[in-house]
Fold this sequence. Notes:
By secondary structure, this protein is an all-alpha fold. The protein has helices at residues 31-43, 58-72, 80-93, 102-115, 120-132, 136-149, 152-176, 228-238, 243-255, 259-271, 277-296, 308-312, 326-358; strands spanning 95-96, 99-100.
Amino acid sequence: MAWCVCWPGLACAGLYHRPLADEQLQPVPQWARFFDSVIPKLRSFAPPDPLAGLPPSPLRQQALQRIDFFARASDHALTADDFVDWSGWLVRLLARDNRPTLEEARRVVERGRSRFPRDWRLLAHLATVYQLSGEYERALALAQEALELAPAAAQRFERFHVRLILQRRLQEHERQLGRLPKDEAVLDDLFGQRWWERGLLPWPSGHPLTVHSTAPTQPPASAPPADAGEVLQQLLIWFPFDGQLWWLLGEYLVAQQEWVYAVQALQAASDLRVGGKVFRQRRAQVLDQAERLRAQNPTPAVPDIPNLDAASAPAQRTPLWARFDWQAWTLLLLGVGLLVLLAGWQLRIWTRQVLRRWRPPPSS
């Protein structure tokens, strides 16, 4: 998978903030790396699951620290790059202090545009904010303006940004008119080639037609465009919580016969509450096909090879103090202290009783 990358260190679609650490903001040629490293790191900007009881990720903590630094600085001391980073990280965070960050990101972008009105990255960020807020008309106008101002190296992915906004606007319009069921997800026809309709697996019957393509329409192809995987990776790097894009990526991976990753993509779409009868049927088809191929080509089981040196060496005993963490030791010491206090109090009572019993009676 030989993919070209437009600018070093630049996220080539929608969000143009600089990396905080080692997060990847461009497509990668290995699907394993995309699923196992790229997306989990970008999702870690979001708040942790409160039920899991985990602390915020290092990336989220760094982003919050940088945002607090920008908030304390004056606007005249900030550069265009600072406003781009500030607003981009706010979009990534999703929420802080139990409040969504989109409105805060919008205010930051507006402050940046008052100083840098021709910066196309701020326009792209503002388009993203309105898109995620469901205001597709305003998002479309801003995305088109950003496309016109963007350098040639970034225009390729920005065109797909515009197509995505067009698709979501059309889908909302069709649902308002009753032409698309509100509880049925549809695929974004970003490429003008509905390859999933003529792919390896039969398409479920009764699927609501995809809305009009936002790309030059062509007859359904048996294979996706050559750059579809790279484009979808970039859009998901930008929108890692977009379930419809995960479904479209799953269809691309089905066409490429990447069954393991197709299952992961459709599972991600399901986790993000992509619903509808057709999606469930399609996901079941892909799961069945993946299991069938797995049964035909089982992975040979390799037994674990014991480490003879480790097996013959005597087991080292763990010191008692290392068996508990500091919280357990704190509770243990508090409990021991309480027992000593109660024991001393009881001994004092017993001592008084004994002294009273053996004290001679007062002489008359």
